[in-house]
Amino acid sequence: MRAEAKGVRRFVVPGADIKSSKRAVSLAEKHPSVYAAVGIHPSSTHIGSVLAHIEALEKMLLAEKVVAVGEVGIDKHEKPTVESIEAQKKMLAAQIKLSVEFDKSLILHNCQGTDELLPLLTKYWDKKLAKRTVFHCCQADEKLLAFALARQIYVGVDGDLSWSRKKQRFIKNVPLSSLVLETDSPFLKPKQGSAWPKSVIYPPKLESEKNNHPQNIALICKLVAYFKGVSPKEVATTTTENAQRLFNF
């Protein structure tokens, strides 16, 4: 694999619904370096579907290579109805409970839903979730960061660091001890532009790539190092240790 050639040794493949979660488990069982997360993404949540989905997830959570519940959370990007938001909240609450019950890590998605997400996390929080939870592709939101630091939740950083000046300013306030590196492949491909640091070499072939790939984790590592003013080696070492704690590798 191209990512392994870049030094990536473990991969966590999350599900977004029952079908993709099953595929993630199957992939993990075939490859020693791959692990799975299973869950119902908020965009896949439908009113009245909670019980059947939870029962299906419970069966998958028994698999040895499943390390997390995810990707789960709140998503208001498409301006969902009040009923849809309530369904998302119900599904998220049930999946937080699953992560605690099965002693699995928790991968949280949040898109414009901080006001719904944080009260739910507060209500269903368990000490087991400390250092076992991550705000995936964390929004540049100081309220989220304060919550994460208070409860020892990791902050995920992705390819949007390459083009979002807001994310670049935000990342400077996140302690390295709280960061984990992600790619969100095939999404959030790093992009060269006015926000790209000139001292970090942009791979010549990356522009022609349609999708993001796990190998770009090495590139995200260099971007984090630049914006935090530390060495790539320090970022790689610390975030690897963080990921190992997060997913209990």
Description:
The chain has 249 residues and is α/β, with parallel strands linked by helices. It folds into two domains: 1-97, TIM Barrel (Alpha-Beta Barrel), CATH 3.20.20.140; 130-249, Metal-dependent hydrolases (TIM Barrel, Alpha-Beta Barrel), CATH 3.20.20.140. Helices cover 42% and strands 14% of the residues. The chain is built from nine helices and seven strands, in the order αβαβαβαβαβαβαβαα. The protein has helices at 2-5, 18-30, 50-60, 82-101, 114-124, 142-151, 165-171, 217-228, 232-247, and strands at 11-14, 34-38, 66-75, 105-111, 133-135, 154-157, 179-181. A seven-stranded parallel sheet has the order 1-2-3-4-5-6-7. α2 runs parallel beside α3 (50-60), α4 packs parallel to α5 (114-124) and α8 packs across α9 (232-247). It is globular and about 50 Å long. The mean pLDDT is 95.
Key words describing this protein structure:
seven-stranded parallel β-sheet; 42% helix; 9 helices; alpha/beta; TIM Barrel
Write the layout of secondary structure elements.
Elements: H1 2-5, E1 11-14, H2 18-30, E2 34-38, H3 50-60, E3 66-75, H4 82-101, E4 105-111, H5 114-124, E5 133-135, H6 142-151, E6 154-157, H7 165-171, E7 179-181, H8 217-228, H9 232-247
Parallel strand pairs: 1-2, 2-3, 3-4, 4-5, 5-6, 6-7
Helix pairs in contact: 2-3, 4-5, 8-9
